[in-house]
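## Example pair
The file below holds two records. Each record gives the amino-acid sequence first, followed by its structure token line.
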Amino acid sequence: MTFSRRDILKSTGASLSVLALPVLAQSRDAGPFKLRASAFPQTIRPGVRTDVWGFNGSVPGPVLRFRKGEIARVALVNDLPGDASTTVHWHGIRVPNAMDGVPQVTQAPVLVGQTFNYQFPVPDSGTYWYHPHQMSFEQVARGMFGAIVVEEDKPIEVDRELVWVLSDFKLDAGGRQVQDFGRMQDLGGGGRLGNVFALNGRQTGRDNRIMVRTNERIRLRLVNTATARIFLLDFRGQKPMVVSYDGQAVEPHPLPQGLLLLGPGMRTDLVLDCEGSPGESFAVIDRRDKGYQIATVVFDKKPPARPRPLRSPMQIEPNRLPEPDPSKAIEHFIVFEGGMLGKPAIGLVDGKALKVPEIMQDHALTWTMNYVAEHEHAMLHTPMFNFRKGEHIALTMINETEFEHPMHLHGHSFRVLRVNDRPTQFRPWRDTVMVSPRGSVQVAFVADNPGEWMFHCHILEHAAGGMMGTVAVE
């Protein structure tokens, strides 16, 4: 099985100013991809070179493109500066536990000068991404991330695909990255927010232009790789349809209230039928941050792609995931407490009960999950839950804090059943779900993937500040 040049061009799309991402595509018999982690300069803000960390000399790293059912083979080469060990986590892909890329839990960190070979089947089509799980609040912020596309056996009909990787960077006046990773106010507050929004590794804005043709159909794969920033995207007069959340097909539907909420770690696939006249344009705006413009979509003055928009189906072929049965699911609950604005919660650290202010001062931790504050990738820890393989699980998350938490479960996808005690419309499959301040979310899944799996907030400073634990499937 090989990829044609047309396949690769469709995966990135043609654009005027939005950076087209490099693609690595393999056949079933190909040798491993090589992902080389290193430091290098890149132009993020126009006219300025910024020292970043990334994969294969670009931020984002190359798009890894697979066909559903293939065996992925990826060799991670660590050429980072100093003594920065690292790993790669394959966010959203249901990998075998040994390949999950979590230091001290599934593997030892990959030291500078070392190579680690990942090999795993790719069971599900969809949009995923990769990033380190070692000092991730710093390494991801520096630029270590990239998208993964796994093609369906029978893709929906579109004219082309675009991959948009959203992130942010914290730069000083000279374009240098601000070296303030791991501050307590970020660990216990809203996370470390950058002052430069980036789309495919370049600063966003009205000059980021993408050319489309009238009545062209585009599949837009969006990935939020920011460590803390939540996007709320408005496509200004266009009517994109949601066809996938976190890599899993959903009944096609318009954006809720016309806006796309995309928290850290989350992905959404949209189908955009470009309805406009040649020469017109529309802005993509982030409504979370004072109407900041992400990009401008410009209708080419060339003749329309076709006389009228496509009417072919948008429904993606769903992956075969084990369907949870809520009637026989075992119920579990998890409560989030703490944070800078929280009430004086008490948590266990290394088996000792402490108040959150003491936890902050003595352990640089700020959050508790079920009254435990966990050091990042602690070697001596107890899983929050122990599941038997094949058990049906109903998990309710209760947020007693003043902050949003995009919660991510490794190794599994789950059905989102209820948000703030209200049933969801589509019961979507997700692997990362947003829990609002003082809100709750109920999910259900079948614990079918053996191993010890991370469950954590994907505001990566929150994870480093205590919102990180594991569940075990035995």
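Second record, same layout:
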Amino acid sequence: MNITYTTHTLDKLENLLGALQYKVRYEKGNFKTGACMLENSRIIVVNKFSNLESRIIALVELIRQLNINDAGLDEKQKQFLYHLKQTTLQL
């Protein structure tokens, strides 16, 4: 399955991260990638100048790297998370 690069997908990613107690912020900065985790905190900073596709790719890559406890997620969020973990991104 592929990820669609739409604002709806970005909203779903932000909502998933919010349910996992992560805060997503859009800031300007000197990023090598589209997003980063601030010193093992639960704040994810996304380059505000990145396009929609880059934002989605960056968030998906971060989610795939996180060790996530899905206990607090509803069934749709769990399915979306599982889908993200199984997806290969097309760059």
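Notes on the second record: The chain has a mean pLDDT of 86. Residues 7-86 form one domain.
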